[in-house]
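Moderator note: this is an archived Q&A kept for reference. The question asked for a predicted structure of one protein chain; the sequence and the answer are reproduced below.
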Amino acid sequence: MKNIALTKGKWRFAYMKDDEVKAKGFEPLCLADFNGGETYAAKVPGCFEYNLYLIGKAPDPYFSDNIYGFRQYESYHQWYFTSFDSEFGHGVLRFDGIDTVADIIVNGKIVGKADNMFIPHEYEADGLKSTGNELVVHIYPSAVEARKRYVPAMASALKYAYPSLGLRRSAAFYGWDIFPRMACGGIIRGVFLTEYKPEKLVEYYLYAAKVNEDFAEINLYYNFTANAPDLTDYKVTVSAKCGDSEFHYECVPWHNMETARFRVEKPKLWYPRGYGEAKIYETTIRLYKNDSVIDEKMLGFGIRAVRLDRTTLVTDDNAKFEFVVNGKKAFVLGTNWVPVDACHEDYDGRVRRALEMTTDLGCNAVRVWGGGLYETDEFYDYCDRHGIMVWQDFMMACGKYPETPEFVESIAGEVASAVKRLRNHCSIVLWAGDNECDIAHRWNGFERNPYEYSITREVLPRVLRDHDVLRPYLPSSPFIENAAAYAAPWLASEDHIWGPRDYFKGEFYRNSPAYFASETGYHGCPSPQSLAKFLRNPEKMFDGGAPTKEYLAHATSSGETADEPFAYRIKLMAEQVTTLFGEQTELNDFVRASQISQAEAVKYFIEKYRINRNTHGGIIWWNVVDGWPQVSDAVVDFYGVKKLAYHYIKRSQSPVCIMGDEADGKLKLYLVNDTSDEIELPYSVKEQYSGKTVLNGKAKCAPYRSEKIAEIELTSGEKNFYVFEWTRGGKTERNHFHSGIIALKLDKYLDAIEKIGFDEWEGF
């Protein structure tokens, strides 16, 4: 079926304030209805805020404190116009993303409505002309529309995100610690036209019901429309090939919705990175009528079995949270994924570059965070083919959402749509109900058991029973089970490790009981060159004085005063710098010290879990790249400039690595092996500050294990930079560990990393 991309055409837009629209009774259905009113060139996909900037009606939203000025536009209606030709009279329009409430109008007729930012929408359009068809998209102001949606008194959310409780729009775009407030909306993803087909494949789901090395039992669920009194003339086929393995199966339907079952001998299995190859069968599903193909779908199909082994709580003798793929425990080294651009600019390109950096860092997993968006098809295709496991949150975050019949119906429909779109992707290994909604029950004075919350305990499991029962499901992250709700929620086997950020080796981080960290991170400042791109006065960000509006806008705070949420972020980072290196008064020194603080912290968190990989399940740190120019936990800034942490993480996530841990007055050395081979290698340990080699040895480790290989006595209060060096396969590799880094001279640390080639600074 031919897809015609309408975003390649020329779009224009117009806008008007809500009270003016109501006063005039203004309901334009075509461009002529504007009666000569002013329209402007529009970028689609894109957002209203950035389109205003492109036409010169507003300043650059990314720069300085300009974003605060866009709140005045939250009550504006938007109309987007384009014209298109058509080879057929009856077509289907598909919008992959509309933000958020909209009317879709074709040739002066409303063909459908939208009220959900998260899911694609399709609309039939009949009577299309060969040339000069007119498409109008009327987007209503989300801030105004959200006020029409009921929010119960006992619901809760972060301050700026309350509109997202009733309106299915991303919570982060109302203001979060990763984004400023971007509430105006727009057409944020592609728009396509296809020919309407009365007979077509409506749904298809190809999955492995049973998997081993010898055979796989494959199920194909299909649902097609048929324009005939019986089905004797129809058949459905599936053909697939992966290297020298292939299969073909024909289904003679007795019903238009049914599941065919067949067996594949000696299948090529899909594995995550580090545990085998991500084998993909290039697959075509076809619908035939009278031996002619009337519809076909192509996909990459991965054969694998996945389960989540976990316990409710961490106890003295019982704790587990680990993914098992094809019978193998897959230790997770991953990163949280958030939308890559607040303004949706060059979104596909930014997704691709962010994924390439994710694989370069050695990650084998991403968690699509529930405060953002379901990602593009290209995102999941990439993960399929590169062995990246996807932990997929449903889109709810940090709140108690309404349980009204209207909202329940809306969220059930959304999740069904998302699951049906994504379930054919083998990379998705987990559905998670939400982000931090279980623990949100304890905010704002609530002491309710989250098990009373019907959406994640009843509604979503019911949807999954209908559409994808095979994948594991976690109601929330972190998940507070009934047994732990009042007794010990802090002992959940999976948790978000966000502490005081006083010192990354402090008690909170060192003694966290979680066997799986699904969030953790540390602030790092963008480079001076990047700061200069979005700030008039970068020096004011760390001078210890009252925060400026620039400071707040890129902290990020949706309010303009220092007591607003997230206004603390830069001050907190400055305090971290002072803790490690003392106060830094020069911009370049401050940025370097900040990036060292972040790099050492995230390295410590990753290595803590890898050292304990024999018993622990993994870590998903926050995050690769910023979607907004800011001071943040991301290890790559908005402009693609890597912070020092990027390079430290890449070494810490190398498949074979020697790591250190400081405990009981000793430096304990571990060899971690995340390969399928037993390894034996020579290594040395050097005190970088003194230049003295303190240890030479040989180390051995079984596949997928961590083994302690040595101990070195530490002097109380010692501050030393230890360099570990080893040779494997003719290649020399290095890692380091810094003991007692607090109150260290910055120039001493900088000199040390320069001498060993770890001074991988960018943007200075």
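Archived answer notes: The mean pLDDT is 94.
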